[in-house]
Amino acid sequence: MSPIIDVEHLNYRYPQQAADQLTLTDISFSVAPGEWVAVVGHNGSGKSTLAKNLNGLLAPESGTITVAGQVLSAETVWDVRRQIGMVFQNPDNQFVGATVEDDVAFSLENQGIPRDEMLTRVAQALKQVNMQDFATREPARLSGGQKQRVALAGMIAARPRILILDEATSMLDPQGRAEVLQTIRAMKANSELTVLSITHDIDEAASANRILVINDGHLEEAGTPAEIFAHGEALINLGLDMPYAERLKAALKRQGVQVPTSYLTEKGMADWLWQLRSNK
Amino acid sequence: MMSKLIFGRFIPGNSVIHRMDPRAKLLLSFYFIGIIFIANNWPTYVVLFAFTFAAIALSGVKWSFFINGVKPLIWLILFTVILQVLFSSGGGQVYWKWGIITISQFGLINGVYIFCRFVLIIFMSTLLTLTTPPLELSDAIEYILMPLKAVRFPVYEVALMLSIALRFVPTLMDETEKIMNAQRARGVDFGEGNIFQQMRAVVPLLIPLFVSSFNRAEDLATAMEARGYQGGEGRSKFRVLKWHNRDTWATVIFVILTGVLVYLRA
User: Fold this and answer.
1) Start-end of H helices in A209-278
2) Where are the extended beta strands (E) located within chain A?
3) Chain B window 116-135: which residues touch A at a Cβ cutoff of 8 Å?
4) Which residues on chain B are in Cβ contact (under 8 Å) with A82?
């Protein structure tokens, strides 16, 4: 199957930067349809810049970006944006509409969709994120997690094929974060959606199919969560927290317990601990 | 501090006036302010007050809101009335005269008329804002400005700015409160000392507020562009305004009112 996102030798530099300082250097990767890819890295490693390059909010210095078969250029940029839904970090600053339903309808209004269809799509989308009771509420009366769910409803209504989460859960409390991730999983289950999430959150990265590690504008490594999490304590240097199982392993190691070096999920860890005690 | 501000607030309700089309309400309120100036004797003012009170009763909004709406402006009203009373010359019986200051029958009656006009205008505009959500008002303004498109006035853009501004008012209020408290925690005294000290204390509030507004604007513009906003042309609209029978009836009532006023005026 041909990839839905294909990036080749992408270089990007902000206008105020010197010629030899690139924010993104020679990035190449591709994402298959329906895949969930997490992009991780330090603050300032270029993750958000990469996301903005993908839908043409920033124009690369060199390299090609192909989204759903279309090469990104000045002519195709609006078609490409229609394929990509983006949810940003700050729930307050991306809420365009004066009420919840207005905000969900904003993308549809931009596409010139007739009002009758808008009404059904907005109602459907709000139901899917479980915000139907809040349709006429104003953003000032919603919590952060609710605002991000409204942002997601806006994406559901616009029906993009790709969803980019640019640290969409980083300003939420653990409960709001869980709600938003739950909603995205439900969205993915209902349609073949490709998700690219830029994140520092370990749970979000762990639920991905693949993780791309970006360091100082280079693509440092790409692999499955199991491969990446096997780095153990080196994860902290990559801008990621350690998963609970890894932290437990590190603590056991300090107590002198022989632990397996490969990555274990929480369930795998529980099984291993179970066996460890019963072998004695 | 801000919660005491009545002007521009909206009280949810389900009266006939609440359900009227915002365009009708906005235009008729302006029209009402215009026809107040037709009135020039007691019967006409009695009719206008009766009409205003009937509208207020119909809206089901508490009277105290209207009284509170007049309160902040009472000094301005009294100042104007007193000027009118003291400096209007001639007409009717002169009660008292000292230099250029004259208190005459004519002046006193005019002063009372001006007081009535102020109260009527404030009551009617308060009724408009109390019964119409700000968002509907901005829709109504967009619709009313539509003819200006012919002279290349950017109606969509102005309407968008208006609705974004309205949407960010509570967000920015919250932020102001937060910055004020943060600065208080660091030892800034707001509202203390003489006028210069008070003005100086506002700086650590205003600058962060401006900077954060710039950042918000940047983020919002990015989000809007990512969601396919290419300007006003070719957009469809989610919210539509509907003109009902009640709006036609309200217009008819206003026309009758105008007729009565013209008939009764001296």
Assistant:
1) 225-229, 244-254, 266-278
2) 5-12, 24-31, 36-40, 62-67, 70-71, 84-87, 162-166, 194-198, 210-215, 218-223
3) 134-135
4) 228
Beta bridge partners of A66: A6, A71
Alpha-carbon distance of A62 to A19, in angstroms, equals 13
Looking at this predicted complex, what is its ipTM?
A: 0.84
Within 10 angstroms of residue B124's Cβ, the number of other Cβ atoms is 22
Of A88, A108, A109, the CB nearest to B223: A88
User: Under 8 Å CB-to-CB from B34, ≥6 apart: which residues?
Assistant: none
Please report how many Cα atoms fall inside a 13 Å half-sphere around the Cα of residue A20, on the Cβ side: 0
For residue B91, give the nearest of B79, B109, B113, B78 by alpha carbon.
Answer: B109
Element (H, E) at B103: strand B101-104
pTM of the full predicted structure? 0.81
Report yes or no: B104 at the A interface, CB cutoff 8 Å. no
Give yes or no for B216 touching A (CB within 8 A).
yes
Distance CA A10, CA B165 (A): 38
At residue A279, the pLDDT reads 64
Give the number of other Cβ atoms within 10 Å of residue B16's Cβ: 15
Q: What tens digit of pLDDT does each residue of B191-214 get?
A: 778 888 888 888 889 999 999 999
The number of beta carbons lying within 10 Å of the beta carbon of residue B120 is 19
Tokens of A69: 């078969």
Partners of A37 in beta bridges: A196, A210
> In a mutagenesis test of the B interface, which of A93, A100, A115 is the best target, namely the one with the most B β-carbons within 10 Å?
A93
What is the spatial order of strands in the sheet that A5-12 belongs to? A24-31, A5-12, A62-67, A70-71
Any idea which residue has 């996301």 for tokens? Answer: A51
Comparing CA positions, the residue from A57, A52, A79 lying closest to residue A67 is A79
Q: Using CA atoms, how far apart are residues A49 and B207, in angstroms rounded to an integer?
A: 28
pLDDT digits (tens, 9 = 90+) for B85-118: 887 766 667 777 777 777 778 888 888 888 999 9
Report residue B226 as tokens: 């990512």
Q: Among B44, B236, B132, which Cα is nearest to A121's?
A: B236
- Of residues A55, A43, A48, A12, the one with CA closest to residue A198: A48
